[in-house]
UniProtKB/TrEMBL annotation:
Pfam families: LysR_substrate
Top-level lineage group: Bacteria
MF terms (GO), sorted A to Z: DNA-binding transcription factor activity; sequence-specific DNA binding
Domain LysR substrate-binding positions: 1-186
InterPro entries the record matches: LysR-type_TF_proteobact-type, LysR_subst-bd
Name the UniProt record assigns to this protein: LysR family transcriptional regulator
CDD domains: PBP2_GcdR_TrpI_HvrB_AmpR_like
GO process terms (BP): DNA-templated transcription
Family per similarity comment: Belongs to the LysR transcriptional regulatory family.
Length: 201
């Protein structure tokens, strides 16, 4: 919401209507001018512009990190792993990818708690429930404020990204171009505030 306030101050001429839903109707109706989608950027009949590439990091509450690191190396098997569900019966593989990148073996990823939304897993981590893998962009403000801390200096590029999606005939609309530039500026500013860790090789 603070970012929308900046948009209003900078471009008071823009009228904005925001809806949130798992699947938008951009391709079927002219009601929407654009959509922000999560995926691979390939949608038939639509133009897409990359906004954010996911960067997965492990985060937990500072108090949990301090307690577990006081005895030396952190044993992840002593912590509750917080997972995010891709579907009702399937977890995202972010923990596996992060552990592989960090070259950590022997961690039991079968247990832990499951959430259907990343926001809930992040909230659980803030409350000291356990440790989760989250997109750096989603937790940058919590890291900056000290609500979360990063576990190890490792991040993994995600397999999907966030895209601004439009219909081809509307891409050149002045108001969409203004909105697109503003989004890119806000993303750049957010990334400048807190640089992520070095990518794992």
């Amino acid at each position: 919401m603070p970012r929308l306030g900046r948009l209003r101050e900078k471009h008071p001429e823009l009228e904005l209507s925001i809806t949130t839903q798992l699947q938008d109707s951009l391709a079927e109706t002219a009601t929407l001018d654009c959509a922000i989608r999560f995926g691979d950027g390939e949608w038939d009949g639509l133009d897409s512009s990359l906004l954010i590439q996911e960067r997965h990091i492990a985060v937990c509450a500072p108090s949990l990190y301090a307690r577990e690191s006081s005895e030396g190396a952190i044993d992840l098997n002593r912590l509750t792993l917080l997972h995010v569900l891709a579907r009702e019966d399937q977890r995202y593989l972010t923990w596996k990818h992060w552990l592989d990148a960090a070259k950590i073996s022997g961690v039991d990823t079968q247990g832990g708690y499951e959430f259907d939304l990343l926001d809930l897993a992040i909230r659980g981590a803030i409350e000291g429930l356990g440790i989760t893998i989250a997109d750096w962009h989603m937790v940058a403000s919590e890291l900056a404020s000290g609500q979360l801390t990063q576990m190890l200096n490792v991040h993994v590029e995600g397999h999907q990204s966030y895209w601004l999606v439009t219909r081809p005939e509307q891409t050149s609309m002045p108001q969409l171009q203004v909105f697109s530039r503003w989004l890119q500026e806000e993303i750049w500013l957010a990334q400048r505030q807190l640089e992520p860790s070095t990518a794992a090789s």
